[in-house]
Amino acid sequence: MVSFFLKRLLLLIPVFLAVSVVIFMIVHLVPGDPIDNLVQINSSPEQKAALAAKYGLDKPLYQQYAIWLGNALTGDLGDAIILRRPVADLIAQNIPHSLSLGALALLFSTVVGIATGALAAIYKGSWIDRTTMTLILLGSTVPSFWLGLLLIMLFAVQLGWFPVSGARSWDALILPVLTIGLGGVALVARVTRVAMMETARKDFVMMLHAKGVPPWQIELRHVLRHALLPVVTILSLRIGWILGGAVTVEFVFARPGLGSLLITSLNQRDYPVVQGALLMLAIAVMLGTLLGDIIQAAMDPRVREGIK
Amino acid sequence: MMAAFEPIKTAIRSPRGGASAAVLLLVVACALFAPLIAPYAYDIQNLPGSNAEPSAAHWMGTDEFGRDLMSRIIYGARTSLTVAVTAISISVVAGLSLGAMAAYFGGWFDRTVTAVVDLTWSFPEILIALILIAIIGPGVGSVMVAVSIAYLAQFTRLTRAQIMALKNETFVEATTNLGAGHFHIIFRHLLPNALAPVIVAGMLATGDAIILEATLGFFGLGAQPPTPSWGAMMSSGTAQIFIAPWIIIFPGLAIAMTVISINLFGDALIEALDIRNRLRSV
Asked: What pLDDT digit, counting tens, does each position of B205-259 carry?
């Protein structure tokens, strides 16, 4: 298990390097002099020269990349142009909000998704199944930002149950989690339902029925347990996707977080912040995928041993 | 060539396929004939009549500049469909070529393509699109490029899997022995047999691309005002959420209806072509 973990961790290094090259190149690929994309407005020529020296802008590109990456790895992501603060501070301030939202949304998607998917599979063809299938279709086709806005209109504006936006109290998390969650629930429920229906056709399930094991016990103890493997696989592949949902939803609910920070700085062309936020989001996605791999390996020895 | 239309006919004959095809036709008609269908011009402002609720004169109400919302939604179909269809078409063609060549030639080319595809695979499309927009800047053209690259991995992967399954078939061996060149084999024999699943996946991805385009538009990174785009319309509606919720409700409904129809029709096509297993193998 430890060697599996280390192998996966090592595999992430080239991925990280590739992604960081692309993110590094942003300031060089956008039109204009890189220094103008990095320096604060109204800076003096001396300040510009100091920054150019710090980033080694007179050196070849690969050396500049090495300097930038070295700085980034030691927590120096430069200074924000508009907000005039170290990017690392901004990120440190925003990460906890994104983490709590992402983690809760993931938990919600998993628990509610498995429960609904299992109910739909057990009561196959009934109104529960049909309602779930409709919900799945809606959850995977309705744009999450629109869903978020609808929830705001209904529960915050009309009913006044939750705050419209921001992150000042815990209940401000409920609508954003529901918004990301519905898409996640749809995904997890769909996989759970299909996996359970496929498992239910297997011989050992028929054997259990023949032995006279109560149906609910078969469904919960045996069928669901077997069906959880593909669910974990899909979840591990899609953790990044759920985190990506957080980017959109933070912006809709005007919540602080990496996503809001990224969108705002993109609109303001505040490139040091854009780079920092993208780098952190990319790392989050990579770590999320790693976490998914580990959970999958813990559940299934075949994954651990690399057997196909 | 007529045989290619048979599965589409079968799909339309199923109740879901028929209903969704009808909705899709309506959306496409809106996009193509917007000036003929829309009751007003999309950019005529009427400030005294701003944020008016739905009425006989304005079926879907007006926005914060008093512009007719329904007309803007009809014109918005143009932006959404143009971006999504163009981006996905580019992506499908590029994915087909890359995937086919990777599978057929193997070796370092295949390893490089697979490595890049696997690299982008784990990242959500929205993040890839945002990275690209950070580089090329906001706008409709940028969104098209971003969307087409964001989905490239999916089609390359799918095509590669199809060709891998086909390339050792006897008919390929026979064609090779007859002296056919690589490109003849790829484009005349392998790709036509691999096409159906990729095209259906492309159709389903068009739905996702419409949502991605709308999301980027909502962020203010897509079509710039006054060009109507479903996402950007909702974005300006957030400021009026307390007084004019219809500015948010109707464009969202347009997106949801379009995307649900695309998914239902795609599903009907999958049934008609009997390719569910070939799509799932990826």
From this structure: 999 999 999 999 998 888 887 888 898 888 888 888 888 888 889 999 999 999 9
Cα nearest neighbour of A289 on chain B:
B122
Total length of chain B = 282
Q: Which residues span the domain enclosing A223?
A: 96-262
Size of interface A-B (CB pairs under 8 A): 124
pLDDT in tens, A284-305: 888 888 887 888 788 777 777 7
pLDDT tens by residue, B97-113: 999 999 888 889 999 89
What total of structural domains would you count in chain B? 1
CATH at residue A137: 1.10.3720.10
Query: Quick check: is B13 in a domain?
Result: no
Chain A contacts of B241, Cβ < 8 Å?
149, 152-153, 157, 164
Q: Do A282 and B221 touch (CB under 8 A)?
A: no
From chain A, the residues in CB contact with B136 under 8 A are: 29-30
Task: Give domain status of residue B52, yes or no.
Answer: no
Is the ipTM higher than 0.85? The answer is no
On whether residue A135 sits in a domain, the answer given is: yes
Of the candidates A22, A143, A286, which has its C-beta nearest B252's C-beta? Answer: A143
Tally the domains of chain A: 1
| DSSP code string of chain A | -HHHHHHHHHHHHHHHHHHHHHHHHHHHHSSS-HHHHHSPTT--HHHHHHHHHHTTTTS-HHHHHHHHHHHHHTT---B-TTT-SBHHHHHHHHHHHHHHHHHHHHHHHHHHHHHHHHHHHHTTTSHHHHHHHHHHHHHHHS-HHHHHHHHIIIIIIIS--S-SS-SSSGGGGHHHHHHHHHHHHHHHHHHHHHHHHHHHTSHHHHHHHHHT--HHHIIIIIIHHHHHHHHHHHHHHHHHHHHHHHHHHHHHTT--SHHHHHHHHHHHT-HHHHHHHHHHHHHHHHHHHHHHHHHHHHH-HHHHTT--
Hey, are the CB atoms on B252 and A248 less than 8 Å from each other? no
Q: Tell me which residue range forms the domain holding B169.
A: 62-279
Interface contact A158, partner B, CB < 8 A: no
Residue A213 lies in a domain: yes
**Does residue A19 sit within a domain?**
no
Instruction: Identify whether A200 is part of a domain.
Output: yes
Residue B132 lies in a domain: yes
CATH number for the domain including B124? Answer: 1.10.3720.10
The CA distances from residue B112 to A151, B109, B196, in Å, are: 44, 5, 26
Of A32, A28, A40, A29, the C-alpha closest to A64 is: A28
What is the spatial distance between Cα A80 and Cα A240, in angstroms, rounded to a whole number?
26
pTM of the model: 0.86
In a domain, B187, yes or no: yes
